[in-house]
Amino acid sequence: MKPLTAALAGALFALGLVISGMADPSKVVAFLDVTGNWDPTLMFVMAGAIGVHAPLSRLVRARRAPLWEPVFHLPTRSAIDPRLIIGAAVFGVGWGLSGYCPGPAIVSLGTGATPVLVFAGAMIAGIAITRLLLRGRDLDGRS
Amino acid sequence: MKKGSDPFSARLAHKRGPTPFSFRRYSWRVTSTSVLRALLGGSLIGLAVTLALLSHGRVAGISGMLGRVLDGDGGRTFRIPFLIALVAVGAIAAAVTPASFGAPVRGAAVLAVAGVLVGVGTTLGNGCTSGHGVCGISRFSLRSVVATMTFMLAGGITVAIAGAHG
Asked: Where are the strands (E) in A13-125, listed by range?
């Protein structure tokens, strides 16, 4: 049962990305192209996701525990520090260059296309190297 | 049809150089269908991360999941099945609706550099569009709001400098 709900969540997530247009890198870049030929449509993806998750997550977090775990595992980190800003900025540069953020990149692996394999391979290498260098330094927002 | 109201003149008008901001300039790309698809897709993403929270008590941030799997902390009941489902639905969608994946906007060398930047940045910043942009903002986490504004701003500046493709 546990892996089934995880797979169902992943499937819904991927379906949402494909339907919304987030899996098309040219559409994502057009969304970021505010000073050029801007396409604001993808703003509605975030609006839809937050519009659904903000009220529902409030209800869920009012429970004593999730269905399959004894406790919720939510991020505890709240500091707005240079590491957060630098990290988000570096991510934004890569996102703007490619039109891929991690979710759509992994979903697009299903196409088997070489450019996506190159991007995802480089992304996974970047994650692995950074985690190796930061080892032990509060990686997942948990103390 | 009024001059400048069809896609092609809108594009040409843009090519002629900077013009004052006008929503009409963009409106041809914002169709009711694309907005409805964006809202529907976004709602599905919202349901997906809610299901992950309800059943597993976890934030469904993709960069964090990848990182934990790389650490050998696969979570066979959560992260591995979630990630496999992402690729599986991607493969089905590639067969049914290949146009949804568009075409890459850069060559392989730039994509490789961009991939490293996305990997390093999301690890340093503890999250990406899903973890900060959807889950964090939905919890009204100020940290996630700041991260999301930062990566959107950096993405916007990058496209302004590097162009939309090339």
From this structure: none
Same domain as B111, residue B163: yes
DSSP symbol at A18: H
Residue B117 forms contact with A (CB below 8 Å) = yes
| Chain A contact probe: residue of B14, B124, B128, B142 with most A CBs at under 10 A | B124
Measured in whole angstroms, the distance separating CA B115 from the mean position of its chain's CA atoms is 14
> A96-113 pLDDT, tens per residue?
999 999 999 999 999 999
The yes/no answer to whether this complex scores an ipTM above 0.90 is: yes
| Spatial distance between the Cα atoms of B116 and A119, rounded to a whole number of angstroms | 8
> Which residues on A lie below 8 Å from B136 (Cβ)?
75
Average pLDDT over every residue of B5-18? 51
B117 and A97 in contact by Cβ < 8 A?
yes
pLDDT of residue B75: 79
* Structural domain boundaries, residue B81: 61-102
Is residue A69 in some structural domain?
Answer: yes
A114 shares contact with chain B (CB less than 8 Å)? yes
